[in-house]
Structures are given as structure tokens and as C-alpha cells.
Amino acid sequence: MESKTGVLLGRLMRTIMRSPDTIITVAITPIMMLLLFVYVFGGAIESGSDNYVNYLLPGILLMAIASGVAYTSLRLFTDIKSGLMARFITMPIKRSSVLWAHVLTSLVSNALTVTVVILVALLMGFRSSAEILDWLMVAGILGLFTLALTWLAVIPGLTARSMEGATAYSYPLIFLPFISSAFVPTETMPKIVRAFAENQPVTSIVNTIRALLYEGSVGDGIWTALAWCFGIMVIAYFFASKEFKRQSG
Questions:
Q1: How far apart are CA 189 and CA 179, in angstroms?
Q2: Residue 136 structural domain
Q3: Phi-psi region of 89 (alpha: psi -120 to 50; beta: other; left: phi over 0)
């Protein structure tokens, strides 16, 4: 399975590398949001942080990932409509390799996008006191978040009837950080909005990443963040696998 998945992964990565503007395009929106909020709105926002780019970056990274996984849906949809998926299924390879290739491609491409966003943030003044272990934990959480959203993206990629339908689901995910602690502390929000913001996945993940990068202590919040990531991933994997088996007979 591993060798076949690697071959299929290589095919998808070569497609991306032939058109690197995919990664650049995915990175543009979060970078523009970073620039806009830091240099235009940053002076008027009370975040409780001396360096607003430090406060903002974790939420921007989640936005970048949410934007990037839409391409998983698109690539999967394209493979199905072009007939490639049907050809792969008839070949002597494990069928799950086809899906895992798309998922691993998303993991790699989103890691590249996140790296680009972090480099831009460094130029804007982002600084962190995190040690190597803290950074590894941040990378792990971002990886789990990417896997969770990618398996979620597989479902419309398999079921959509149009290109627009395959990617439309990503828009609510991209804007979910706006109703969280990503841009401002939840304490500043009205009660109803605050209740939603404090009990949705983005807030717990953002707070955990922020704590790892700047505070060095995450407390019990990390378990909530991990629970959200694993929960979404397991549920999405179940429905995506079920739909793939149905379509592949």
C-alpha cells in the first residue's frame, strides 16, 4: 500500500509543482488578512498583546489551512470527472491508496503554505519564545487540523456535481476564525456570540497554539483542541470512506 500511495502522491505533487501558483494563491488571502489587520485595524484592536501580529498569527494559519483543503476537493472531483478515479480503482492497488494520496498531498501542500505565511509574519515582526518541543507540538496540532479538514473535504470531492459545489463548503471554514478568539479576545463579544465563539473548535486550537508559541504552558486546553481535531477527523473519515466504497462498488 505504501509504495502505491507514494506513486499516487508523487503524481499529485508533480501537478502542484508544475503550477506553484496554487500554493501562492492559497497563501494570498491569509497574508492579505494578516497585512490588513496588523497595519490597518491593529492599532484600534485591544488584544491584550503588545505585538498584534503575534496574537493574530495562529488564527491566520488556520485560515490558510481551511483555504488550502478546498483544493483537495477540487483535485478529487477532477479525477472523478476525468475518469482517472475509475481507472485507478481497476488497477491492482489497494483502493484506499487513492484517497490517502489526496490526503497526504493536502498535508504537504498546506505545510508549504503555512511556512510561507510564517515567513511573511516574521518580516512583519512576529517573534516567539517557543522552544523546539513547543514548535513540534504546534506542527503536530496544525497537522491534525489539516487532516481533519482534509477528510472533511474528501466528502464533497466525492459527491459534488460541479466544481463550485466541490469547493463551496470551504467558505464557512475560512470565515469561522472571525467568530473565535483568533482576532480579538472573546471577552469583548456579546454574550450569545461569545458563547458560540468559546465553544467552537477554532478558539480552543488558536488558544493552544498561542500558548505554545508565547506562554510555554498550555494547561488543559490542549486536550480540548486535540479532541476537536480527532473528533472531526474520525467522523469525516468514516463518512468519506463509506461514500468512496459506495462509489467504487
A1: 9
A2: 2-248
A3: alpha
How many domains are there within the chain?
1
Residues in the chain: 249
Nearest Cα to Cα of residue 248 among 91, 13, 137 = 91
Helix pair angle (96-123, 221-248), 10° resolution: 140
pLDDT, tens only, 76-89: 888 788 776 667 66
What secondary structure does DSSP assign to 95-154, as a single string?
A: THHHHHHHHHHHHHHHHHHHHHHHHHHHHTT------HHHHHHHHHHHHHHHHHHHHHHH
Instruction: Residue 57: name the closest of 130, 114, 141 by CA.
Output: 114
Contact 199, 230 (CB under 8 A): no
pLDDT in tens, 191-249: 999 999 999 999 999 999 999 998 767 778 899 999 999 999 999 999 999 988 887 76
Cα 25 to Cα 167, 171, 222, distances in angstroms: 15, 15, 31
